[in-house]
Automatic annotation (TrEMBL):
It comes from the Eukaryota. It is a multi-pass membrane protein. Its main location: membrane. This is Peroxisomal nicotinamide adenine dinucleotide carrier. Belongs to the mitochondrial carrier (TC 2.A.29) family. GO terms for cellular component: membrane. GO terms for biological process: nucleotide transport; transmembrane transport. PROSITE patterns: SOLCAR. It comes from Gossypium raimondii. It holds the Pfam family Mito_carr. The chain crosses the membrane at residues 109-128, 190-211, 232-255. Gene3D superfamilies: Mitochondrial carrier domain. Solcar repeats lie at residues 2-91, 109-217, 232-323. It is found in: Membrane.
Length: 341
């Protein structure tokens, strides 16, 4: 089994576990990002308050709306990303060693090369998996948008609740979301928000650059203090992953909000402030009608969710890689011994 495949499978496994743990936070964050209430005097609900509100009004299952396609997307994204990341990194390491033989550098992959490797891996991942995340966004925000559409059209609160109570028992499935996207924009509708998402590859690129840099320094310090042991613990991997994700999230969060706005169902009202034709149109309207605050809606929730998810993912992925390599080594030793006379 190749090292790239081991990393791809380990990344997918870590991503699934991290997704299951943090999914309710992700659902709430997506709703916060796509909230288009322009009344600034309205008190914004906190993360815990909003989670409780969703449970009270819509039931526990709505916190996991779109979980199935999200798990598929996480598995595909992490698998694709780590697979190509390892391939590109192996090539970067080979070139670094070639340069060292020529007397250039120390044979290690520098920060710029790490950034390029992560960015290329991210671009491949985005282009292949964007349709899945469009569907996930629709399913996470479905009930929220449904309530807004009807509340803008129905005459009284009593009539609104009567209609919603009749509508909401019908499940909004993955198939419904796919059909809705296709009916709205055809085949290319599944690549809505791909432009800001491609720019957002800077997030995992920065994340991995920070992670690899901190990991390299930690191993170097460990080898100086303990020459016979330069390994790192699962807890240290957890903390490094959290720090790397925190730095990357703070820088790229506004693009995440724009992407969510584009991928969510457009509000069916005559108010053009709520309707976006593309990335630049969304950015300009958000600046004009919501100010720069609009680009940071739900940021605290996102930081908690993404940092926790990234830390769990890194920790589990590294442990899975170690376990797989150990099993392969033991299997190789067993095979050799079985061939001995």
């Amino acid at each position: 089994m190749s090292d790239a495949l081991i990393n791809g499978l380990a990344g997918a496994g870590g991503g699934i576990i991290a997704q299951l743990i943090t999914y309710p936070l992700q659902t709430v964050n997506t709703r916060q990002q796509t909230e288009r209430d322009l009344k600034k005097e309205k008190r914004k609900l906190g993360t815990i308050e909003q989670m409780c509100q969703v449970v009270k009004q819509e039931g526990w299952e709505r916190l996991y709306g779109g979980l199935t396609p999200s798990l598929v997307g996480t598995t595909a994204s992490q698998g694709v990303y780590y697979y190509f990341y390892q391939i590109f990194r192996n090539k970067a390491e080979s070139k670094a060693l070639e340069r060292q033989k020529k007397g250039i550098g120390d044979g290690s992959v520098g920060m710029l090369s790490s950034l390029i490797v992560a960015a290329l891996s991210g671009c491949v991942n985005v282009l292949l998996t964007n349709p899945i995340w469009v569907v996930v966004t629709r399913m996470q925000t479905h009930t929220n948008i449904l309530r807004k559409d009807h509340s803008n059209r129905l005459a009284t609160p009593a009539l609104e609740e009567t209609v919603l109570s009749a509508i909401e028992p019908f499940s909004y499935s993955t198939g419904h979301a796919i059909q809705e996207v296709y009916d709205e924009a055809g085949f290319w509708g599944f690549w809505k928000g791909v432009f800001p998402t491609l720019i957002m590859v800077s997030n995992p690129a920065m994340q991995f650059m920070l992670y690899e840099t901190m990991l390299k320094k930690l191993k170097k310090q460990r080898s100086l203090s303990k020459p016979d042991n330069n390994g790192v613990t699962a807890l240290e991997i957890f903390l490094l992953g959290a720090l790397a994700k925190l730095g990357a999230t703070v820088v790229t969060y506004p693009l995440n909000v724009v992407k969510a706005r584009l991928q969510a169902k457009q509000v069916a009202t005559g108010d053009r402030r709520h309707q976006y034709k593309g990335t630049m149109d969304a950015i300009l309207k958000m600046i004009r009608y919501e100010g720069f605050y609009g680009f940071y809606k739900g940021m605290s929730t996102k930081i908690v969710q993404s940092v926790l998810a990234a830390a769990v993912l890194f920790m589990i992925k590294e442990e899975l890689v170690k376990g797989a390599r150990l099993l392969l080594v033991k299997d190789g030793i067993h095979t050799v011994k079985s061939k001995l006379p």
